[in-house]
Design brief:
six-stranded mixed sheet; alpha+beta; about 450 residues; FAD/NAD(P)-binding domain; about 30% helix; seven-stranded mixed sheet; single chain
Length: about 450
């Protein structure tokens, strides 16, 4: 396998088409437009399509306070919060929604708390998310199970679409299928080039929120895009299977720790099986692909394996552990995965994205209202350091420890006898963020 192709998203033969399930529950997917099917290969979920609210030809005729690049969790929530405060917000993404992405699909307690404090407490219920009830960790043939009732399981197709629709409902304009390139005019203004399949236009804004993910590149100046990638970083990979083994209980996270990485399994709200893994690059090469390696890890563990893993459509991410040298460039704030990433374990990545998106919105709104878009960069650096960097140190320590097989093996043995020892760790990972600023809806 060519690993560079893996990093740019693996393409393998697809799953058999998921059976059509146009029942009443799909009406609860909070998004506008008509009912559509979003696919990864042929793995599909039923969800209302979120349509663009503005055309590429129309955007340059408008005046924008904030342009948000990337409509994932961080970008969509940031757009929603800023629009709710009366800012003129343009949210853009190169994808069409709903869309699938590599993700463990677990919102932990901290993430659910951010949504509630953002005025979106009903969103996960509307997406028919499954409340978490347990965590099952294995290493080799040994396993430990314990209570984990913080958070929910929800597919990214539904969650992302619901957040985008919430942004639209708050007054933001949404434009999909465009690539964005940013160039600073001066310290107080940016020009954003938006390129569609046949048209290219430019808009200006004093604030840009860069939420284009791990691999997103929005500046033509490479110095502004410099990232420090850990030499020991793993890559993320994932797939969704049509059939979920009966052994995978709803609301339980199944995690296997292996010398070559770790694999997580959850049953989604529509009874598909989500698989997400962080794997060593060299191990993927030796196994001749992520599907073979994941299958091998599961076969060696106490977790159920399924033959369809090898025929699934597997997609990958860039190196997971990376840090951006500068998380702000004047009025351009990098949020979510775009600001840096550490291997998350059970939902921390989405919590960081939501907390960052919310706080960035608060700072952006404050800058627009005061007319001071110069000092917002330093404010964001400080907030990001206090909110995200410090909190991610626990995940960093865990990910480093997992590289030594003896540590997860001993941990599982101890937890299988004394499962209560896991509770302080679970509580700390799900504790609410101490956000200094949070943009509440007007």
């Amino acid at each position: 396998m060519d690993l560079s192709q893996f990093g740019r998203h693996l393409r393998s033969r697809s799953l058999s088409a998921w059976r059509s399930k146009l029942d009443s529950e799909t009406t609860n997917c909070r998004s506008g437009g008509h009912v559509g099917l979003s696919s990864v290969g042929a793995a599909m979920t039923v969800c209302n399509e979120v349509r663009s609210t503005i055309t590429l030809d129309q955007v340059d005729a408008e005046s924008w306070d904030i342009v948000v690049i990337g409509a994932g969790l961080a970008g969509a929530l940031c757009a929603r919060q800023a629009a709710a405060q009366g800012c003129r917000v343009l949210l853009v993404d190169r994808a069409v929604f709903p869309r699938w992405k590599v993700c463990g699909c677990c919102l932990n307690g901290a993430a659910v708390d951010v949504l509630a404090r953002s005025g979106l407490g009903d969103l996960v219920t509307d997406c028919q998310a499954i409340p978490l009830s347990g965590l099952h960790i294995s290493s080799g043939r040994r396993s430990a199970s314990f209570k984990h009732n913080h958070g929910v399981v929800v597919s990214r197709e539904r969650l992302d679409s619901a957040l985008i629709q919430a942004a639209i409902d708050a007054g933001a304009e949404f434009l999909d299928r465009v690539n964005a390139q940013v160039q600073p005019i001066d310290q107080r203004q940016f020009i954003i080039e938006l390129k569609g399949s046949a048209t290219q236009v430019s808009v200006t804004a004093p604030i840009v929120i860069a939420a284009a993910g791990l691999g997103g590149r929005i500046f033509s100046d490479h110095r502004s895009e410099h990232r420090e990638v850990s030499t020991s970083s793993r890559v993320g990979t994932g797939a969704v299977l049509e059939e979920c083994p009966p052994e995978i209980e709803p609301g339980v996270i199944y995690m296997n720790c292996h010398a070559s990485g770790y694999v997580g399994l959850v049953r989604l709200e529509d009874d598909r099986l989500d698989i997400a893994a962080a794997l060593d690059v060299q191990a993927i090469k030796r196994a001749r692909g992520p599907a073979e390696l994941v299958s091998e890890i599961l076969q060696q563990s106490a977790l159920p394996a399924t033959a369809s893993i090898r025929s699934a459509s597997w997609h990958g991410t860039p190196m997971l552990t990376q840090r951006r040298a500068r998380v702000a460039e004047n009025g351009c704030l990098f949020v979510g995965d775009a600001a840096g990433y550490v291997e998350p374990f059970t939902g921390e990545g989405m919590a960081w994205a939501l907390a960052g998106g919310n706080a960035a919105a608060a700072l952006a709104v404050q800058a627009i209202e005061s007319g001071d878009t110069v000092t917002v960069a330093e404010q964001w650096r400080q907030h990001h350091r206090e909110m995200i960097v410090r909190r991610s140190r626990t995940c960093k320590a865990i990910s480093l420890g997992l590289r030594y097989p003896i540590i997860p093996q001993l941990s599982v043995r101890v937890l299988s006898v004394f499962p209560w020892l896991a509770q302080p760790f679970i509580r700390s990972m799900n504790a609410p963020f101490e956000l200094k600023t949070i943009a509440e809806p007007a």
